[in-house]
Hints:
alpha+beta
Amino acid sequence: MAHINLLPWREELRKEQKKQFAILSLLTVVLACLVLLYAHLYIGGLLDDQNARNEYLKTETAALDQRIKEIKDLEATRAKLQARINIIQQLQRSRPGVVHLFDELARTLPNGVYLSGIAQKDLAVTVTGVAQSNARVSAFMRNVEEAKWIGAPKLDVISSKIQDQRARSNDFTLLVIQADKDKDEAADSASGKADAATGNAAAPQSKEGGK
């Protein structure tokens, strides 16, 4: 029986298998590198897009902050202008009141009473002066109560002192309230309208009575 030597064939098969394994391993490594490269490029692209969005948002946020600052500056300027307008309007409205105030003080001031200072805050007026006697101060307060543009006198301080060892004077501080011109005019207007409405309502009744 003839013997066949299979060792060379087996050796060739083994070499072929090693070669195929090496090629397959190399392809696997190359494929893995390609996958990693793609993942790196993809993630890098996502990061670049996100960074671009972040820069855009930063730019828009800075522009928005600038607009908000400009709006706040405009509002502050507007508030200052409005405050000035209010002061001017208040001064214009208070001019007649100041005239009435000084007119009433001059009219209600009795003989023997002399004013040394006047201070006003809103409708409250502080009057300081000197009187020859307490009776003159009382007369001044009665005149203020009967005045149209000032009223509600309240004696805050009164002190007596002797001058030239014979004459006595009384320093006083009087608080009065100035009448609100706008409210008085509104009340007078409302009262006039009410009287007119009453007169118009009474006119038809008179005509019916005549029939």
